[in-house]
Amino acid sequence: MGRSRTRSPQRPRAAMSARHRQGGDGRSRWNPGAAARSVLGGGSVAGQVFVLQLVIVLLLVIAAVVALVLQARQDSTQEARRRSLAVAESFANSPGIVEALNSPDPTAVLQPRAEAVRKQAHVDFVVVLNTDGIRYTHPKPDRIGKKFVGTIGPALAGKPVVEEIKGTIGQLVQAVVPVKDPGGRVVGLVSAGITTQHVGVAAEDELPLVLSAALAALALATGGAALVSRRLLRQTHGLGPHEMTRMYEHHDAVLHAVREGVIIVGEDGTLLLANDEAHRLLGLPGDAEGRHVLHIGLDPGTAELLASGRVATDEVHRVGDRLLAVNQRPTDRAGGPPGSVATVRDSTELRALSGRAEESRRRLNMLYDAGVAIGTSLDVTRTAEELTELAVPRFADFVTVDLFEPVLAGGHPDPAGTLRRAASTGIREDAPLYPRGRQIRFVASSPQGVSLAIGRPVLEPRLRDAPGWHAQDAERSGQVMEYGIHSLITVPLRAGALVLGVVSFWRSRKPEPFDTDELALAEELVARAAVSIDNARRYTREHSMAVTLQRSLLPRSLPDQNALEIAYRYLPAQAGVGGDWFDVLPLSGARVALVVGDVVGHGLHAAATMGRLRTAVHNFSALDLPPEELLTLLDELVGRIDQDEAQDEDSAPVTGATCLYAVYDPVSRRCTAARAGHPPPAVVGPDGGVEFWDVPVGPPLGLGGMPFESAERELPEGSRLVLYTDGLVEDRRHDIDVGLERLREALSRAGGSPEEMCGAVLESVRPARAADDIALLVARTRALPAGRIAEWPVPADPAAVGEVRAAVTRKLAEWGLEELTFGTELILSELVTNAMRHGGAPIKVRMLHERHLVCEVYDSSSTSPHLRYATMTDEGGRGLFLVAQLAERWGTRYLPAGKVIWAEQPIPPT
Fold first, then answer.
1. What does the alpha-carbon distance between residue 456 and residue 212 come to, in Å, rounded to a whole number?
2. Three-state SS for 488?
3. Which of 590, 891, 603 lies closest to 773 in space, CA to CA?
4. How many other C-beta atoms can be found within 10 angstroms of the C-beta atom of residue 779?
5. Which CATH superfamily is domain 787-906 in?
6. Distance, CA of 852 to CA of 563 (rounded, Å)
7. CA 358/CA 697 separation, integer angstroms
8. Hey, what CATH topology would domain 257-352 get?
9. Which residue intervals make up region (Disordered) (predicted)?
């Protein structure tokens, strides 16, 4: 089929093929049914190939079957010869054969043995003969005693013989071997054989397998021939010579007319085809086709790509003054020949346009990244660092951010003040620019000074030619120039009308200076960062105010008391100020109250609410109320606050406030506690054992409607009572049970003193980045020695007052407090007299020698005394007035059955 332009005589057949592959719209389509009929009909090249292959395969299969059958028969005969010889020799050499031959009746002895061997060895006979050829054994008894049919001469000479003969039982293969006595003399013969009928049966048994294999091979060969013919039919599309000639002519015309180079390379790197455009673009020689691509004068990069055959998509190679885009794909993906095809197009102008588009896309991406990456935290310094990290090295080689000093603390910038370098990032660390943290005051002629003054960016394309920049610091400017920094853009950080500082972009690696397009990009980048820095500044100011308010509301020092040795820690949240608080409140009777609370939320509102609750606890504790009653009053107070603030849309209710209130008495060593939605306290015994005190939990403050319950327990001296807020044991990654278990482990390992325990707990339990405030209070209990406690029961008789005064005088003398005798006698006389007159029995007096001298009078009445001024005509009413004048503090504490009136006097210094 050459390129003849004569009309093809196969046009009708080609038309039929065309109808097979074309639809109604004229587009090429593949018709599987028509293709099958074309193959089976044999009218096409594909059909003829199919028939030829089928005939060849059929002849090969028949020849193979015949050969296999003949080979099987030959193998069966050889097997029969080997088996008969082996059986005969085994029987001839078996024990007792010689003795049997010499016995009076050899047949009686040998016949059973020969038959057993015959059956076990699967042969047709085992015959024992004497040297005259007379049979002693035979499968058919009537043949015993008759002459053996076969050759026995070699066996009598001592050599075995195997032969194929026609014997008494038919055509057979038999072996005859001698039986020798110990002296080597032949005393008999043994013959074993297999009939040809059995040999043929063995071969016929293999025939089905051979035929099955032949049929399978024929089926596979037929299928393979069909696939080959179908592929040939698909590739030729049923075209005749004329159509194929025209197709190739069109192929050549299109190949050499397109404005894109086409190159086909073989598997071994040989250039198989290159169209005219490829010759023009690559400068190929006229004899390039048929030569290896590495030897046709291509540039190394392009030659390596074509020789490797790897996949490439729009890979740009410079050839002379052209930028060529090369696409390469393998040709064997759809069953084609191994190799690769590459297309080459001139993209010089397109590259220039795409370079500008790429630059624009890069700048847009950087602005998008600025909106995402800058302002992730509400820290002024960190936000400035994020700006520098984004711009280096994508936009500049070095970036510095200088902010006015008040901005770093959340205040308003002072245009006349100094700046501080808040962030500095570069491609190297040894640049001679001002370091981070350095205070700077820019001169008016410097680019930064001009930018701050006019509020607009300033471009210095060549720093060497900028005298105003050199005036800032002549020595350092020279170092910067020697380092290689040669171009600068300064942009003021503007947030509305405020100028927060200035950002400087420095270039060193790229030889081209900054241009006006880059100036616009820098201005847009800084404008986005300025919003985030201003937000961080505002947050810093509010955070500082909230921290100041919070710390002013927390106790600055612990009150003096002897009942507990106390240590505490307070850590504000990193994300904002919360509402955690604690307090230590001395009570009457040497008792001490411990309180820990938490207001959910952050900011000024939470801090202010915490201060109100702490003030309320101070006031309520002065009433000496039990813990559960104090929480009830606090709950009512929070409810009233919520009602009042519900009228104001700008105020938020106090939701989620919790509190734990505990009172420790060093006299009885008992502690009473109640909690409102707060985590339970931990108790560490003197032996180091840790347990969480199961104090009944009430609802958080402000919910109302549910009473609070308290729990009471005795704490041995030296026990540690641990109060804390939920920020210590709960975070987003762990459940509170996990936090409590970690707290238990930390307390069990901590030292004995409260200070050591606070440090150990925070070191092992505190989260790496606290999302909530943490308040921790550790108190080690002390007991008031029995020698400093004095108690007297008082009969309801006025005469007993004198006895009480006398006992008090003796006890004060024993304690070395004689200076307080007069005042103490007056106080106790008045309190005991009032208890007899207005109270009820039993009456008891207790005196405690602690930091103060405490006098307490118990009675069963719940009537509360009141301090008042007596008129000139009143006979009484002046007793409590005297008590108030003599005592430093006095008051009433109610009990479940009565009350206690107490008074404290300061102990004179020794």
1. 95
2. strand
3. 603
4. 25
5. Histidine kinase-like ATPase, C-terminal domain (3.30.565.10)
6. 12
7. 65
8. Beta-Lactamase (3.30.450)
9. 1-31
**Cβ neighbours for 151, distance < 8 A, ≥ 6 positions apart:** 161, 163, 165, 176
Condensed to tens digits (0 to 9), the pLDDT of residues 574-605 reads 655 667 889 999 999 999 999 999 887 666 67
Q: Provide the edge-to-edge strand list for the sheet that holds 170-180.
A: 125-129, 186-195, 170-180, 161-167
DSSP 701: B
The CA angle 661-664-668, to the nearest 5 degrees, is: 145
Residues 6 or more apart whose Cβ sits within 8 Å of residue 99: none
Answer yes or no: is pLDDT of 57 > 80: no
Q: Which of 407, 410, 425 is nearest to 501 (CA)?
A: 407
What would the two tokens of residue 321 be?
Answer: 């003054």
Report phi then psi at 127, rounded to 5. Answer: -120, 130
One-character DSSP codes across 616-664: HHHHHHTTT--HHHHHHHHHHHHHHHHHHHTT-TT-----SBEEEEEEE
Length of the chain: 910
Cβ neighbors of 286 (< 8 A, separation 6 or more) are none
CA distance 400 to 381: 12
Nearest of 679, 661, 657, 678 to residue 737 by alpha carbon: 679
C-beta atoms surrounding 19 within 10 Å: 12
Question: Is the bond into 842 cis (omega within 30 degrees of 0)?
Answer: yes
Q: Compute the CA torsion angle 572, 573, 574, 576 (nearest 10 deg).
A: -100
Alpha helices in 289-446 (DSSP H): 300-308, 348-373, 380-391, 405-408
Amino acid at 172: L
d(CA 238, CA 884): 126
pTM, whole model, 2 decimals?
0.52
Question: Could you give the CA distance from residue 600 to residue 880 in angstroms, rounded to a whole number?
Answer: 45
List the one residue out of 721, 746, 766, 707 whose CA is nearest residue 584.
Answer: 721
Check if 69-195 and 374-544 are the same fold: yes
**Digit-coded pLDDT (tens) for 733-761:** 777 888 899 999 999 888 778 999 998 89
In DSSP terms, which residues pair with 161 in a beta bridge?
176
User: For residue 95, what is the enclosing H or E element?
Assistant: none
Residue 708 has pLDDT above 90, yes or no: yes
Instruction: Compare 42 and 645 and report the one with higher pLDDT.
Output: 645
For 365, the token pair is 């991406």
The whole-angstrom separation of Cα 243 and Cα 235 is 13
- Determine the pLDDT at residue 142: 86
Q: What is the DSSP letter of 444?
A: T
Residue 587 neighbours by CB distance under 10 Å: 19
CATH code for residues 557-781: 3.60.40.10
Q: How confident is the model at residue 370 (pLDDT cuts 50, 70, 90)?
A: confident
Query: Nearest CA to 721 among 667, 758, 768, 696?
Result: 758
**Domain spans of the chain?**
69-195, 206-244, 257-352, 374-544, 557-781, 787-906
503-556 per-position pLDDT tens digit: 999 999 989 999 998 999 999 999 999 999 999 998 888 777 777 776 777 777
**269 in Cβ contact with 26 (< 8 Å):** no
Q: How far is CA 879 from CA 123, 736, 835, 875, in A?
A: 142, 55, 12, 11
Please answer whether residues 578 and 599 qualify as being in contact, where contact means their C-beta atoms are separated by less than 8 angstroms. yes
Secondary structure element (H or E) that encloses residue 428, with its range: none
In Å, how far are 297, 299, 386, 404, 624 from 273, measured between CA atoms?
Answer: 16, 18, 56, 71, 106
Q: Which CATH class is domain 374-544?
A: alpha beta
Q: What is the DSSP letter of 678?
A: P
Question: Cβ–Cβ contacts within 10 Å for residue 709, how many?
Answer: 14
The superfamily (CATH) of domain 69-195 is: PAS domain (3.30.450.20)
**Angle (nearest 5°) at CA 411 between 406 and 412:** 90
Residue 21 near residue 238, CB atoms below 8 Å: yes
